[in-house]
Amino acid sequence: MVVILAAGKGTRMNSDLPKVLCSVVDRPMIHFVVDAAEKAGIGKKIVVVGYEAEKVQAELDTRGQSDIVYALQSEQLGTGHAVQICREHLQGHQGLTMVIAGDSPLVQAESLKSLIDHFDKTRPALLLGTLTKDDPEGLGRILRNEEGQFIGIVEHKDATEAERQTKEVNMSTYLFSTPDLLWALDNLSNDNAQGEYYLTDCARLLRESGRPVEALPVLKDCESLSINNPDELKLVDQTMRAMGYA
Ligand code: UD1
Ligand code: MG
């Protein structure tokens, strides 16, 4: 099962279109994210919609697939809240729930596959895909202890100057054991710089409860590009064309 986060307005895009419907390579970006999940062999897809939900749903309906279900997040209270909205779909499942972001059309099916393989081997509560980025401005940083073990994710806005020096980043590629995800969702708070329920906090909560959490730096360079403003939209479009997506 995969949860695709697509409810945000995308305030920083300065566009009336919901962010996930802005086009890259002449196609609304959300399609590339659904394509990648499909190519990775994931069955059931839950898309969290909110801002202009009908438009996003209508666009995805053009795929003619019946295996997409929608969860409506009427108020966008954060990425953690977006997954909380999916609880009824997750309840009772024992296996893997992947969570990925609709604003990352360069997510690679191969990366998702290798994460799934690793997850099947080690069966952690959470496996995160990460990468190292020279300019990590704005992104969630991966915190590790001196032994290199994962400690947690800190959002750029909440990070100290020292934490901001970290170049290993979260790209919103999460593989959760579903019961552990449900436990973490019940324990999220919104006590942070943005007053939002952060999905990233699940990582720290799970680790602090003694559950195994792993962060694996397997993502490719191109996957460091997500879309939050018009400049990033242009850069991703150019990158995808150069990679032969067009
Ligand atoms: C998020 C991560 C950050 C990571 C970055 C890039 C959190 C708290 N932060 O930040 O660590 O480095 O992505 O992967 O998760 N969305 C909803 N409902 C909401 C809020 C967001 O569905 O209430 C959706 C958006 O539509 C978007 C995705 O979630 O597709 C990510 O949201 P966005 O606001 O772009 O998060 P970032 O600030 O980029
Ligand atoms: Mg984003």
UniProtKB/TrEMBL annotation:
Keywords: Acyltransferase, Nucleotidyltransferase, Transferase
Function per UniProt: Catalyzes the last two sequential reactions in the de novo biosynthetic pathway for UDP-N-acetylglucosamine (UDP-GlcNAc). The C-terminal domain catalyzes the transfer of acetyl group from acetyl coenzyme A to glucosamine-1-phosphate (GlcN-1-P) to produce N-acetylglucosamine-1-phosphate (GlcNAc-1-P), which is converted into UDP-GlcNAc by the transfer of uridine 5-monophosphate (from uridine 5-triphosphate), a reaction catalyzed by the N-terminal domain.
Catalytic activity: N-acetyl-alpha-D-glucosamine 1-phosphate + UTP + H(+) = UDP-N-acetyl-alpha-D-glucosamine + diphosphate; alpha-D-glucosamine 1-phosphate + acetyl-CoA = N-acetyl-alpha-D-glucosamine 1-phosphate + CoA + H(+)
Coiled-coil ranges per UniProt: none
Top-rank taxon, per record: Bacteria
CDD domains membership: GT2_GlmU_N_bac
Protein name: UDP-N-acetylglucosamine pyrophosphorylase
Signal peptide: none
Segments forming domain Nucleotidyl transferase: 2-213
